[in-house]
Amino acid sequence: MTRFGLAIDLSRCTGCNTCVMACKMQNNVPMSLAWNRVVVEDCDFEVGAVGTYPNLTRSYLPIACQHCENPACLRVCPTGATYKDDKGRVEIDYDKCIGCRMCMAACPYNARVFNWEDPVRDPDFNYGDKDVPVRPKGVVEKCTLCKERTDRGDEPMCVRCCLSKARTFGDLDDPESEISRLVREKKAGVLLEEQGTRPQVHYFN
Amino acid sequence: MSEANGSQNVLTRRSFLKASGAAVGALGLAGTAMLTADEWLAPAQAHADEQERTGYTFHYRHCQCNCHLKCTVRDGRMAFIEPNDWPDKRNETICLKGISEIQHVYSVDRLQVPLKRVGERGSGEFVEITWDEALDAVAQGIQKVWSDYGKQAIAYMPSVDTLSVNLGRILGAQEKPHRGIDIGLGNGFSPAIAESGGQGAASNEMKDWKNAKTILNVGCNVLETCMVTAPYFFEALEAGAEIITIDPNYCTTAAKSSRWIPIEPGTDAALYLGMMSLILENEWYDEAYLRENTSMPFLVDEADGSLLRDHPAESPKETGADNPFMVWDAVSDSMQPYDADGVDPKLDASIEIDGKTYSTVFRKFKKQHEAYPIEWAAEKTGVSEEVLREITEKYACNGPSILSFGFGGADKFSNADVSGHAAVVLATLVGTFGSEDGAGAGAYVNAYQKVFGAGKLPNWPLPEECKAASAPKESVDIRDDKSGIRMLYFQDGAIQQCSANMNETAKWIDTLDFVVAQEIYHTPSVDYADIVLPTCSHFELDQEIGSLRALRGHALLQQKVLDPLFESRTDFWIETEIAKRLGYGDAIPESYEELVRYQLDNAKDEAVKGITLEELIESNGVVALNDQPEIARSYVGQKYATASGKIDLYYENLVNYGQALPAWEDPCEAYAGNPLRDEYPLQFFQRRTKYHIHCNMVDSTWIQQFFKPSVEMNPVDAESRGLASGDIVEVVNDRGSFSCECVITNAIRPGTVAVVEGIWDKYLESGAIQSVTNDTAIDRGPALPKGRVIPFNDTLVEVKKA
């Protein structure tokens, strides 16, 4: 089996948002939606810091779909639009999505976004990978782990563009893969382990 | 910016991860209008079958990064941008700025047609004109200035990223005269080692940081301002180097360093002086290195501070080969030329000959340092004695060591040259230059663009009279009476970027005969122009081949991605049309291609020789320069192009200013005891960000999803003023004011405020950021290699609720 995932080295993340932009472009994500975000932990602003000057810390946390082995979103989807594909990715069949947004309520990572209106793009044309489906108003969307790219054997765009080389893509079922080695050696963790979702996005410092 | 998106960065980890309705709501847009079944169930569609083609171009060099991009064009529109393939895979980079060009090339703030001013200068009132009208007006304006005042009356301020080729020389203009920006530290740092660019470029590449043990990164937010160096930063950390970032604010780089040490702004020189006192006291300096490779053993006449030469020198620049410097030889116990066979110069000596006292530079240096004990440095810098001792010992004794500085901090204070001079002496004391791998000093961001991996391309031969004019020596500032400037021809927001005290600058511009802007975007500077020429971005060409660069270890070709957008024209087309009207139509190349072929065929630089245009096209625009090292380092073999051929730490030309050796001088405005602080207590800092290259990208709507102009201040200062995040505040001093939102954050040093530089006036609530900044020209300016620095950050303000 193939079980694609990501390993993210948080010590290398500078919160630069290049992965966020890369995702937006690649996947033709409209204005005011984002599939991938970088959170500055416990801060109200990107330029914030935790603590009192000069005893400060700041950490960045990039978050998108965690491509869980046991996805909370999948269990609640009434139409089967959300599915786990043969490469271990959580995907959405947009044609089957009825926009009930049960999946959004179920996802503990808040990874999904919804097209409440006709998508507004600036510039007003479909940019990005031409193989990426255009989503209409009324469907949920999220990180696909760059399905179209990874099906072609390319890395996800966020991995390709990460300046710090903080992101590693690969097959978690292959014990020889770089991602498996990192998860093993760096004792990488997952977000909200107690939810039992078993994410395939691993984080380490 | 929508509410939904504005809040995407303000979620905490906790609120982000809980699947509460509120958190989900924060990501959705308002509006729940009913949909028809057809709309609701409309099948998702892939993009229709469209025509795709690929184009390759370089992106900006101004951020120092020189990314080369592979761009997909679909139905005539740029739809995808990704890093191009490079022979050196480390260079396959793109940042959020490059990606955001998807939208930014089509920005509503693109200048679309030529414009002619109809209102007051600065009012932004223009009418559209034709290209012929615009070019005729520009040519006539140039000719009138030429005949009324001479060619040198034009100031040509090209963009760092300009693709104009011969325009400056055809104009015969002063090019960036006394620009005063990014030269402050270099003024003091570069002369000692004859660093070629004069801007303090580092002695090795950042790729060498992984070979260092101790890295002092002083006032340089490199992870935001030169983003492609991030891997080298983390390689160093992972290899076990300790990166100590010294910065008033908790910037991104501070947060990612092994350690952050806050410092009082404008006191970097005091930090270095204090460190040097400790190094002297503990004899941590490299005595053999100082004796062999530096001017430290040279004898100085105590009476007038001059360096003792074989015979009286007519100029301090007279070389040591022609007129040797004199040292005290320990073997013969006599005065000897420094280059005499078998000479063993004493480092620390003072002698009397014929009633005159001569001391070595080192002796004078030690004596001068009695004024800078560690307690003094601690008080000036706000860094404790204990911390100063600790970092100095690490820097001096746990090498290889790096001393890194940037352009955003100390460079923009009146005492910048003192900081730069102190930095080069400090690095020399521990034997940095031309020594072991992983030892280095300087501005690492600058080295990346200009010094390392750069190939020299020949200039197109123009008639002899076509050459740039020198700026008058008696002028210190483009705006002064002695500059002789009557016309300004600028690109890329030069007025906003290169002038402090905007209200005074505006008055000066009003006195000029003619102002031309050649710009891609309608930056605030454009409003001061009489004629505006809209130019293409790097993605647009009217021919297949564009211009050539040799940077980042590779020859980089610009090729067409898009046809010129709107009615914009390439820099090349514009200068061709102007040249024709000035009678030089036959003197310039017919196309970029002819120029590029000339540059490659006539290259004298071994790094470039043999590279052909065909090879470049075949390689999608990227070909490795010849024989580039894995990691570049300067001064190998202790070779310095200085007067003595050694590291010349003693600046004889500054004896009359008391700065032959670095001597503490307070910043001219933002110093601790300035009475002006009663009214304007806060130091004002313009910081750079990953989001913009100065004023460039400010109008990008993709960037605006993340960035909103704000004044950043510490809770302590906000509380005493009754301010909360989101309040509109006015930043004010006697020079002027501006207003925008404020953000309260602990990352900013109490007693200071920060704002991102380059923000356009239209994105503020009112005013202009540069209206408050300090434009004082210090007396020493004309004696410094690049003239006076503009002390943008040496500024005091008050902040109040607007």
Question: What can you tell me about this protein's structure?
Answer:
The complex is a heterodimer of chains A (205) and B (802). Chain A contains 6 helices and 11 strands. Chain A is an alpha+beta fold. Chain A has a single domain (4-204), classed as Alpha-Beta Plaits (2-Layer Sandwich), CATH 3.30.70.20. The radius of gyration of chain A is 17 Å and the shape is globular. With 802 residues, chain B is of the alpha/beta class. Chain B has 4 domains: 3-41, no CATH class; 115-171 and 456-624, Rossmann fold, CATH 3.40.50; 186-297 and 366-442 and 640-655, Dimethylsulfoxide Reductase, domain 2 (3-Layer(aba) Sandwich), CATH 3.40.228.10; 675-801, Barwin-like endoglucanases, CATH 2.40.40.20. Helix content of chain B is 26%, strand content 18%. In chain B, the strands form 7 sheets. Chain B has a 7-stranded mixed β-sheet, covered by helices on one side.
